């Protein structure tokens, strides 16, 4: 999609730094639907020129959005809003806030209040009136872009009630002060079995406990696939081809070999039309299922992934540590 002109502004005298101001404005625009999943954000250089800011400031704001699972950043392509669980959650939160904020601002203006002073006073009021709570543990999930990292991030957050940041193996680390700070302040680094050796080697310098988890396929899905007619053309689709191959291997390992296997990465859009036409049935990971379902509702089924029992136990232990803090 074409880049949108965004109504961003900065206020140097505001309590929050400029980087946070940019990030939160973008989150608001995504949350209320002004920026939609699939939209491309303006380039960092374009925003830096428009706002008169340093390029690193915009880069840091975009990077934080990526860590929160709201955008993807690819060289040569740009920054795109993700159609995933985090984006959906943000939209539910912000849309419910919008009417309340509009009403509050209208009443504040009518009463002659300065909005920035009201904002600062509101922050102070919240800090003073909210009971002191223990800070959540911070987990860094290290994964590759081709697997269903959105599912993993959400599953870890739900199982542990910890703050989860996402880093990709395709990126060099540390690649800046921000990523270095995230890693140094992490309580745990989590990765999957397939990446265990690489993660332990690359992140050993941070002296953090590395927890290795695994995923498996829901038995009901394997049973459904086993009942397909012989020679059925089945394609497994994930964010990347590697993820699709992992899905197909789970089916092969279950002893199912009477169907024709195919794999596709959601990032391979050139092959997508032919795959949709040639496949009898398509199993999609949760991260790509909603969009694929729109394209071929009669063919697309969800490939339900879940955490292995041992992985749930490991995350339960982390959760207990968080409660004890």
TrEMBL record:
Residues 16-84 form the HTH gntR-type domain. SMART domains: HTH_GNTR (SM00345). SUPFAM superfamilies: Winged helix' DNA-binding domain. Pfam families: GntR. PROSITE patterns: HTH_GNTR. InterPro entries: Tscrpt_reg_HTH_GntR, WH-like_DNA-bd_sf, WH_DNA-bd_sf. The keyword DNA-binding applies. Keywords: DNA-binding, Transcription, Transcription regulation. This is GntR family transcriptional regulator.
């Amino acid at each position: 999609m074409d880049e949108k002109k965004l109504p961003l502004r900065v206020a140097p005298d505001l309590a929050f730094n400029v980087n946070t101001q940019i990030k939160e404005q973008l989150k608001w625009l995504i949350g209320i639907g002004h920026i939609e999943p699939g939209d491309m954000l303006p380039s960092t250089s374009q925003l830096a020129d428009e706002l008169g800011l340093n390029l690193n400031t915009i880069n840091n704001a975009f990077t934080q959005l990526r860590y929160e699972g709201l955008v993807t950043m690819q060289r040569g392509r740009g920054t795109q809003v993700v159609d995933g669980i985090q984006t959906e959650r943000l939209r539910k939160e912000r849309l419910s806030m919008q009417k309340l904020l509009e009403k509050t601002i209208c009443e504040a203006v009518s009463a002659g209040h300065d909005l920035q002073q009201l904002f600062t006073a509101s922050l102070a009021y919240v800090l003073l009136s909210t009971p002191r709570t223990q800070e959540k543990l911070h987990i860094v999930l290290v994964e590759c872009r081709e697997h269903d990292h959105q599912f993993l991030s959400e599953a870890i957050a739900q199982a542990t009630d910890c703050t989860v940041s996402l880093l990709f193996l395709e990126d060099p680390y540390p690649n800046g002060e921000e990523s270095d700070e995230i890693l140094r302040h992490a309580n745990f680094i989590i990765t999957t079995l397939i990446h265990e050796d690489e993660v332990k080697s690359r992140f050993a310098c941070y002296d953090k406990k590395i927890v290795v988890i695994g995923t498996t396929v829901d038995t009901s899905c394997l049973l459904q696939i086993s009942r397909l007619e012989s020679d059925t053309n089945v394609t497994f689709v994930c964010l990347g081809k590697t993820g699709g191959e992992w899905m197909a291997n789970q089916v092969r390992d279950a002893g199912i070999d009477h169907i024709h296997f195919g794999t596709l990465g959601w990032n391979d859009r050139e092959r997508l039309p032919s795959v949709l036409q040639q496949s009898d049935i398509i199993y999609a990971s949760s991260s790509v299922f909603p969009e694929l379902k729109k394209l071929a509702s009669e063919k697309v089924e969800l490939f339900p992934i879940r955490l292995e029992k041992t992985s749930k136990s490991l995350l339960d232990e982390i959760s207990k540590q968080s409660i004890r803090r």
